[in-house]
Amino acid sequence: MGNKLIDLQGITKSYGKQMVLDDLNLYIRENEFLTLLGPSGCGKTTTLRIIGGFESPDKGRVVFDGQDITDLPPNKRHLNTVFQKYALFTHMTIAENIAFGLKIKNKSKAYIDDKIKYALKLVNLDGFENRMADSLSGGQQQRIAIARAIVNEPKVLLLDEPLGALDLKLRQDMQYELIRLKNELGITFVFVTHDQEEALTMSDTIVVMNQGYIQQVGTPEMIYNEPENAFVADFIGDSNIIPGTMIEDELVEFLGTKFRCVDKGFGNNKPVDVVIRPEDVELVAPEKGTIKGVVTHLIFKGVHYEMEVMAGGFEWLVQSTKMSPVGAEVGIKVDPFNIQIMNKPESEDEEAVGVDE
Amino acid sequence: MNKKARRKNALVSSPYMVWIAAFIIIPLLFIVYYGFTDGAGNFTLEQIKSIAREEYYEALILSLVLSIISTVICLLLAYPLALILRNMNLSKQGFIVFVFILPMWMNFLLRTYAWQAILDINGVLDTALSAIGIEGFNIINTPAAIVLGMVYDYLPFMVLPIYNVLVKIDDNVINAARDLGANFWQTLVKIIIPLSKPGIASGIIMVFVPALTTFVISDILGGGKLLLIGNIVERQVKADNLNQAAGLSLVLMVFIIINMLFSGKDEPDIKTVKEGKKNEKLR
Ligand SMILES: Nc1ncnc2c1ncn2[C@@H]1O[C@H](COP(=O)(O)OP(=O)(O)O)[C@@H](O)[C@H]1O
Ligand SMILES: [Mg+2]
Q: What angle do CA B273, B278, B279 make, to 5 degrees?
């Protein structure tokens, strides 16, 4: 990954009294697959529209390749967008749709024809030139929207929940296809989704957003394994979030029991949130566990079993390939480095930014 | 559909069928019958051929010219207006559309008489212009006055269908055109206008047809001196010469049908619906 290509500096945007983005700072590197991830209404589309030039920020600057483009209209920006519901031109054929941007730029007919062929091949829709846009299925329209954008050779492709309207199987296929496309084209993708699995699968970098604030920026592994706050932990995957107290470095107490951990520097006797992923909870014989409990629910999930265990007054979510029947007495064991410690939000304000989904 | 549902359907639609037969089909058949017979009921083409009489022929030409001019003016006024309305925020939109169709609640005759009072010699406009030193601006009893009346009366019929298709165009379709490098004019010409063709076609039909056949506007604002084809038909009806009136009406109908074919020619809907059906089978 290369240099900063897009730099959002102090972006603030309100609609009427509603603050949608508040002093957002974010940079996007050349050749990066960056995903904006967050619940519906958190400001992802607004951020993308500001990058694309369809919305202007109340405050802040958009810098592209070292140039301030905050006031540049969309048709003057070197990036293209794939819109949420495809937005194909229904009065045109597929070929005319794809040719649209190139005709505006007065490219030669031979060049345009070549590009159409190339783009249709790239999205696996050869031979669709003369079909009408709305005679295609959702997945096909999605690919055409992508083809229509990439023939213009943008440096950045903005994609707003491009797979949102597709069914699960098609969505998974398209995820792989998008990754392949990105590698083949060697350009920057800014991708918007509210689906954490999609974000984890596809991205180089994930930006977790909530209520107009960036919660955490990092690689999928960092976001999943080391969530910085309870919101991220809760939003990404399933987790057990338990209030506790940091007794001292590498020792935390929760549910009335002391657990060894690997985190340091929280101070002594500080209230914290403890995050433990369900697949990191080990069920052992009662006397071998750190804390005792009883299995209350059991579901078979295919690859693993999912169980709920009542222990220490908390309903633990547990995923394991080994099954423990409902009613069984078990002990709970967690490896020290699977215990993730997070600072408790300090003010009410921050609390509001946290978990309320 | 099974038999039962079909029978139920027929039952529900029967009052409308009766209505269509009694008030549309049968009168139309009468017009065709009268148009092709003489007073004694013998077949003749004379009623149709009479359009070639100089007086009638000139009235038809004048009607065509004035209604085409009025339709074009309405289109040029209505399109930008509908576009501005579309781009306004929603709360204002409803109000402006309401204000715009408000005159339609007033009687059509009253509105036309009001224009007569405004345009008349020594009328409101003349007096006002004289007061600031402009004398002799009189368009009453001229084709210009008739065109003015037509445009004023029929403009809402152009605005509404165009506005209706424009608001249905997804914002992101327009954004996509901008995103792909089109400026405002390119977006208008290549995307917005083609997508609003069905509305334009309806608007043209809804303005052109009444303008072509009107006799009231030409009566009131043309002073009875400028005869449109509508006036000729009206006179024949009043003179109890129904055969002649029917014959001329049939000639008019030809122009109306030509207009409809022309403006409905490339309505995108039909084409895409067919394509979609074809593909459904393929899938
Ligand atoms: N044009 C607009 N006018 C008023 N409010 C808007 C507008 N666009 C978005 N919003 C509001 O801004 C918030 C963020 O919207 P958006 O960026 O679309 O969220 P996301 O894409 O993350 O679901 C939402 O609460 C939405 O209602
Ligand atoms: Mg959105």
A: 100
B262: domain CATH number is 1.10.3720.10
The reported pLDDT for the residue numbered A346 is: 60
Ligand nearest to the CA of A20: 1
Q: What is the residue whose two structure tokens read 């065709």?
A: B32
Domain that holds residue B2: 1-35
* Cα–Cα distance, A275 to A337 (Å, whole number): 11
Q: Kindly state the tokens that stand for B65.
A: 């010219």
Ligand 2 centroid from CA A220, angstroms: 21
Residues of A with Cβ-Cβ distance to B283 under 8 angstroms: 137
d(CA B243, CA B231): 16
Please, are residues A230 and A241 in contact by the beta-carbon 8 Å criterion?
Answer: yes
Q: What CATH number should be reported for the domain whose range is A238-341?
A: 2.40.50.140
Those residues with Cβ within 8 angstroms of residue A267's Cβ, 6 or more apart along the chain or in another chain = A246
Listed by start position, the domains of chain A span 4-225, 238-341
Interchain CB contacts (distance < 8 Å): A and B: 78
Q: Whose CA is nearest to atom 17 of ligand 1?
A: A43
Residue B83 has pLDDT above 80, yes or no: yes
The second-level CATH assignment, the architecture, of A4-225 is 3-Layer(aba) Sandwich (3.40)
Q: How many domains, in total, are found in chain B?
A: 2
Instruction: Give A134's contacts in chain B (Cβ within 8 Å).
Output: 272, 275-276
* ipTM score assigned to the predicted complex: 0.82
Segment B145-172 mean pLDDT: 94
